């Protein structure tokens, strides 16, 4: 019986706060029965079953529901891989398991699990592929990782289980005085308060389960006891700040009941709202900072001199390592005296917990990009570019670690689920640039388009929304460009360069290699989609990718609009590009005074397509001339000025307008900002702005050969 086998281990692990994984291998009915019997006989409190066929009376969750259990604890975990192995759900579920408890993983026998038709495969397959086409590399990676760990308790159907070797019981860490759970947590709170006292930014990092969010709440509580004023809190989502608010009340006298977010002196705001000037407070606490784009963090840093950034380094909702590498540069530039504290001691399980270390390896949470020293003396001629055979990733562990680690560094929302997509997605290809045996850059490319007519019609009518095919679906469903469904495309899903080698042209070389590969294979266009920033647009347009669509709303975390760009490779795609860009031009001109009135003028200049010189009537030309060279009021000739400016950035550049002049033109004429609003962001009052605008219009007229006539 499983109970008899595990009972001695349960007692020792409970005393030590150690968690371990029990791997039940066999038929589904056998594995589920074994797990159910053990839960019954062991009288486990608050067990959690992830997957199907849970026994009566046991809390059961499907994989997508596990996230709602974050922040709570379970006394045992059963993860039923017969229902599908969802990497994100596994990481989240493991994070809820209390110290000293066991996790049971139910799978087919190891040899057959590698080729198992995992129900999760259906979520990875996109047209024209089916679940049968999805790779099995991820499952093979799991089997290899589990078999290599001597602390995994493997129990196979039909085999006699020998008594388990029992580990020594380590001496538990000394308990900290409440409200602190560990000495490490007390030290972190003291460090936060010390940094706030002298208005120095502080970065608090920790792996999952170290009490990082709780430490922020306890620090806020102590600060409020000593100081007047308001504490502001932000995080990627309101739910991500729940633990901070819950612990906030632990550090203050008196009993609190009700909504923990209901605090008179601590207020939550989304990052976007804070960037737009909302919220007044003496300090800002940023939780899960790694899940917030770096430009947003920079804006928060500029606004709040007293600020604490807390983030998870190895986590299942995203990673803090890109934050750790990239945002440090910004901190060093803006606040060179910034401080950092790393929390090491787990709160809910023991140091060196076997299950934590195993889950890190299973989900590649510990993957690292190549060390910086690998690229010392780099020369462009040392680069080797290739379209990678993904089977190599199973036999070359350092390559897999460097690849996933590099992708993690480059994108703040990389999750364990992305590892499975990387290994198994049938429509994905991996391109790499290597140097000295290490990965310098990588690019993930997915197939899109070539859709059947009935599917295109369904997308156009809003009845169908198949997985994948992001660019064709947007162009068909939102822009009415049904011809996009016929074309074959490759979308660059991710592109990442090692931080040591950025701005060396490596990413551009990968894009060039992809175009060279695609042309003889009759690919019609290359495309990409990302949150629009000035730097990213500059990179992509510099590689001849042009904007064709701007999303309808801002990302709630990053505050950016999604933008789609295309690089046509054939005549049909060039026709699509021209039509899409004209639609984008008209849409932008229509929306700039309204829903896009807050869009950065520099982005507008990068996004707005140009058109042929606008034909002005004689009356319109005379209106513009009298404004430019005399004293006609702006409001009396605004339509003519708008028409002249609507030709787009190419006409502005021909006229020799610098960036400051272009931005004034955009804000006044295209976005119709009030003079009062302009005065808040520009030097000089209305008179100076009008004078500058007259000079701009004079130059635009002159560049058309329509200068001042006396």
TrEMBL record:
Which CDD domains does this entry report, sorted A to Z?
A: NAT_SF (cd04301)
> Where does this protein hold ATP?
185, 348
Gene Ontology MF term list: 18S rRNA cytidine N-acetyltransferase activity; ATP binding; tRNA binding; tRNA cytidine N4-acetyltransferase activity
Q: Does the keyword Protease apply?
A: no
Matching SMART domains, A to Z? DEXDc
The terms describing its cellular component in GO are: cytoplasm
Q: Where is the Helicase ATP-binding domain?
A: 177-342
Q: Which UniProt key words apply to this protein?
A: Acyltransferase, ATP-binding, Cytoplasm, Nucleotide-binding, RNA-binding, Transferase, tRNA processing, tRNA-binding
- Single GO BP term: tRNA wobble cytosine modification
- UniProt binding sites for acetyl-CoA: 495-497
Per the UniProt record, one Pfam family is GNAT_acetyltr_2
Listed under catalytic activity are:
cytidine(34) in elongator tRNA(Met) + acetyl-CoA + ATP + H2O = N(4)-acetylcytidine(34) in elongator tRNA(Met) + ADP + phosphate + CoA + H(+)
Q: Name its cellular compartments.
A: Cytoplasm
Known EC number(s)? 2.3.1.193
Q: Which HAMAP family match?
A: tRNA_acetyltr_TmcA
What role does it play? Catalyzes the formation of N(4)-acetylcytidine (ac(4)C) at the wobble position of tRNA(Met), by using acetyl-CoA as an acetyl donor and ATP (or GTP).
Similarity comment text for this entry: Belongs to the TmcA family.
Name it: tRNA(Met) cytidine acetyltransferase TmcA
- Native organism: Marinobacterium nitratireducens
């Amino acid at each position: 019986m499983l109970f008899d086998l595990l009972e001695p281990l349960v007692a020792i692990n409970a005393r030590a706060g150690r968690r371990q994984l029990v791997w039940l291998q066999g038929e589904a009915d056998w594995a589920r029965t074994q797990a159910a019997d053990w839960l019954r006989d062991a009288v486990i409190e608050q067990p959690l079953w992830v997957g199907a066929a849970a026994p009566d009376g046991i809390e059961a969750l499907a994989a997508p529901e596990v996230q709602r259990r974050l922040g709570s604890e379970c006394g045992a975990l059963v993860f039923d891989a017969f229902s599908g192995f969802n990497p994100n759900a596994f990481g989240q579920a493991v994070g809820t398991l209390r110290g000293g408890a066991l996790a049971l993983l139910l799978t087919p026998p190891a040899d057959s699990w590698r080729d198992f038709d995992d129900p999760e495969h259906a979520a990875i397959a996109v047209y024209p592929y089916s679940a049968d086409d999805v790779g099995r590399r991820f499952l093979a990676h799991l089997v290899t990782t589990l078999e290599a760990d001597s602390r995994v308790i493997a129990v196979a159907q039909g085999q006699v289980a020998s008594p388990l070797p029992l580990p020594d019981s380590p001496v538990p860490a000394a308990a900290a005085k409440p409200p602190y759970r560990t000495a490490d947590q007390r030290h972190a709170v003291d460090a936060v308060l010390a940094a706030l006292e002298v208005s120095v930014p502080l970065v608090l990092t920790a792996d999952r389960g170290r009490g990082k969010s709780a430490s922020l709440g306890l620090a806020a509580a102590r600060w409020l006891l000593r100081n007047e004023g308001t504490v502001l809190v932000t995080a990627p989502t309101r739910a991500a700040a729940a633990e901070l608010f819950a612990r906030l009340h632990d550090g203050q006298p008196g009993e609190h009941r009700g909504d923990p977010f209901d605090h008179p002196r601590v207020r939550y705001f989304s990052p976007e709202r804070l960037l737009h000037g909302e919220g007044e407070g003496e300090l800002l606490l940023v939780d899960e900072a790694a899940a917030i784009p770096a430009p947003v963090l920079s804006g928060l840093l500029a606004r709040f001199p007293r600020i604490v950034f807390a983030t998870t380094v190895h986590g299942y909702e995203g990673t803090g390592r890109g934050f750790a590498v990239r945002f440090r540069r910004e901190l060093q530039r803006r606040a060179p005296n910034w401080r950092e504290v790393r929390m090491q001691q787990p709160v809910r399980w023991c140091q060196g917990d076997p299950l934590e270390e195993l889950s890190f390896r299973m989900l590649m949470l510990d993957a690292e990009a190549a060390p910086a020293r690998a690229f010392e003396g780099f020369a462009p001629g040392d680069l080797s570019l290739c379209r990678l055979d993904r089977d190599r990733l199973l036999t070359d562990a350092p390559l897999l670690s460097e690849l996933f680690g590099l992708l993690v560094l480059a994108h703040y929302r990389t999750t364990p689920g992305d590892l499975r997509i990387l290994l198994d997605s049938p429509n994905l290809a991996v391109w790499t640039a290597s140097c000295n045996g290490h990965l310098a850059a990588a690019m993930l490319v997915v197939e899109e388009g070539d859709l059947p007519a009935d599917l295109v019609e369904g997308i156009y009518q809003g009845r169908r929304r198949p997985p994948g095919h992001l660019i064709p679906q947007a162009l068909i469903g939102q822009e009415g460009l049904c011809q996009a469904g016929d074309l074959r495309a490759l979308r660059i899903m991710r592109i990442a360069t090692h931080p040591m080698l950025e701005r060396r042209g490596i990413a551009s070389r990968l894009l060039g290699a992809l175009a060279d590969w695609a042309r003889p294979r009759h690919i019609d266009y290359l495309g990409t989609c990302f949150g629009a920033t000035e730097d990213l647009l500059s990179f992509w347009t510099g590689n001849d990718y042009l904007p064709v669509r701007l999303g309808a709303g801002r990302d709630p975390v990053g505050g950016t609009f999604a933008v789609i760009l295309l690089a046509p490779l054939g005549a049909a795609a060039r026709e699509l590009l021209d039509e899409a860009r004209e639609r984008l031009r008209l849409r932008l001109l229509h929306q700039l005074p309204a829903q896009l009135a807050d869009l950065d003028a520099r982005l507008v200049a990068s996004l707005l397509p140009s058109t042929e010189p606008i034909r002005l009537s004689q009356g319109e030309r005379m209106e513009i001339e009298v404004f430019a060279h005399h004293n006609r009021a702006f409001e009396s000739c605004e339509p003519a000025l708008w028409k002249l400016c609507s030709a787009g950035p190419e006409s502005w550049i021909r006229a020799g307008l610098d960036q400051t002049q272009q931005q004034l033109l955009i804000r006044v004429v295209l976005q119709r900002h009030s003079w009062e609003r302009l005065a808040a962001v520009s030097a000089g009052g209305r008179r100076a702005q009008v004078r500058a605008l007259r000079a701009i219009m004079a130059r635009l007229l002159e560049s058309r050969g329509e200068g001042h006539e006396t």
